Amino acid sequence: MTEKLFIHADIGDGTILLAGQLIVDDKVGRFKYAKAYINHPRAFALDPINLPLNADIHVKHRTRDTPAMFGVLIDAGPDEWGRRWLTKTRQPPPVTQIEFLLAASGEGVGALHFTPGIDDPVRPPPERPFENLVHLQHIASDIEAGKDVDRALEPFFFHGSGIGGARPKSLIEHDGREWITKFNRDSDLVDMCRVELASMRMAREAGIEVPDVDLTETDRGPVLLVERFDQSPNEQHHLVSLASLINKFDITEIDESTMSYPGITQLGKRIGHLTADLGEVVFRRMLFNVAIGNTDDHLRNHAFMKRASVSDYSFSPGYDIVPQLSLQGSHAIAIGPFGSTPSGDNIHAAARRMGVANELAREIAGEVIEVTANWRDYMTDAGVGESELVLLERCFELRDVVERWHSKAT
Known about the structure:
Blueprint: E1 3-12, E2 15-24, E3 28-33, H1 35-38, E4 57-61, H2 71-75, H3 80-89, H4 97-103, E5 112-115, H5 133-144, E6 169-174, E7 177-183, H6 192-205, E8 213-218, E9 221-227, E10 231-232, E11 235-236, E12 238-241, H7 242-245, H8 261-271, H9 278-292, E13 303-306, E14 314-315, H10 344-353, H11 358-372, H12 375-381, H13 386-392, H14 399-409
Antiparallel strand pairs: 1-2, 1-5, 2-3, 3-4, 6-7, 7-9, 8-9, 10-11, 12-13, 13-14
Helix pairs in contact: 6-12, 8-9, 9-11, 9-14, 10-14, 11-14
């Protein structure tokens, strides 16, 4: 069976252009940029490594582990949560990658939109008033429980594979800005909305660029609000995940040459000139993830972003930075040349490979240690209970590795 879709890109100032066409069959996917797009002065490569901006036909072969689909398109499509929601609300439900992309067009992260025909209009976003939040919270709970849901609310739910992670979530407008709202699950051992709020506040205090976060209370409990950093008034900013850039779909297999924090730095130097301090930025984020026990730091949780008003890629703000109760120890990607388990030698070697001088690395570590030393205060301020703090203690155990390395280095 052969399927096709047309890809449209927001190039800034609210202008959306036809960027190209994708044709997929049982063996291969073929993408070609539109000639008018290539010739436009504000055109950009959707993926600067795998889809360079030229007139070639770009081919992606289907294998047992790899779909015939370019990763940057999957980034703009639905994640696990979005697929569950679309399966519940669409009749007939989407089945193929193309069908999911079309069903979620414009509701994912970044600047891409999808249409089945070349002349089909791009769907404008619906209004998403804050007053719908409690209703959406009930609907999200029903989806988690496998119940039938109100299909009329489909436009309010966020499908994207990036910023929001795999947790239940929706989109709202509040105070003139767009937010992703994240909901707790009944199966959560701790109040993850409050825990993520505290973690993102800590990250900002530790010098990491993160979006604004807030918390609102409803009759069903707290809801976390995360501002969308991939959008600004009348513009959408393009994102491509690290997993897509390295063409890696099986994120359970660690290739330390690419799936590592030093690998992020090397990759960034290949795709943009706005990465002069990338080693410092990535090293800081790595140490913070180690210190709080955020071991679910896989390559879809890191991305490069091309802002609508800028011609080059830069490292995106941090997102989904939260301790992982069930995944302590080894990280999803390698810390350094000695694998995915944090150690002083691994941290030291990672800093060298990222080009971070010893004095600066010690300074960054000191700032991370100082902030995370007060993790209980941040959690308590966010409303996390005493019994939950006991469960979270184990997540912060590897903070001692960072502290010991810092003490030894000084």
